[in-house]
Design goal:
alpha+beta; three-stranded antiparallel β-sheet; 3 strands; 14% strand; elongated
Amino acid sequence: MSLLETYRTDPKLFEEKAELLKVIAHPVRLCIVRGLMAQESANVTQIQTCLDMPQSTISQHLARLRAAGIIEGRREGVEVYYSVVNEDAKRIVKALFP
């Protein structure tokens, strides 16, 4: 089976993978994913300190990553700790930063 036949038979798969690439292609989101992979989890304050950006900016990027199913949040009291749950995203970041 050629690649074109695969696309014709399952275009949704290619759309999902392309969307994943679009979401992590942003430098800040790529940095967040890489950092979360290195630390296993972090809250917004920890991410904000590392990136030296406003909390609102970090929250917007986290929301985009969460909506794409790349990260998940775990609530501990008033804090939410984020971690990377998407295996494709993990493989991509590992390939980019061996």
